[in-house]
Amino acid sequence: MANVKVYNMEGAEVGTIDLNDAIFGVDVNTHVMHMAVVSQLANKRQGTQSAKTRAEVRGGGRKPWRQKGTGHARQGSIRAPQWKGGGVVFAPKPREYGFKMNKKEKSLAIKSALTSRVIENKLYVIDNISFDEIKTKKMVGMLGSLKVDKALVVMDKKDENVILSARNIPTVTTVTSNSLNVFDILKYDKMIISKAAVAQIEEVYA
What is the model's pTM? Predict the structure, then answer.
């Protein structure tokens, strides 16, 4: 089992924790992680873009000039794609971009992402993440004590004080353990997670 240090919010080491190798010590599968990120971004796309083909543009039913004898190239409609105001050749239409991954692939992607953070020493376990008030300065202080700038903060449960304290910091995002995703894990340079959140993740993915 991987053994990592546990810190308090002041950055002092207060102990260690053994991480489950079935989750934090798997063989990193970069292909599945890539699939998970692409899937997440694709599922976020609205897919509402639309343009008209030549069949849908109004007008252009009459041939603009006769076929021969004018010196012009032959034309059948002023709504053909080469005309200003004409239709689009392969016009984009509303569509669904998302695709699904099976449960085993999703699980492996999360485990691979978490393992990569442990291998790279970018996982910081905190004994307890909680604030008694909404104060951005306190969040900045915690990050400073851990010498972290860009981080994903993972909590075991929703805490408005922590969420709102981090909201004004553009390089920090907060999530709960049940909404953890590969994109966020890989996007942020470091991962700060509470001991309770570690236990929840091990319970879900074990």
Answer: 0.82
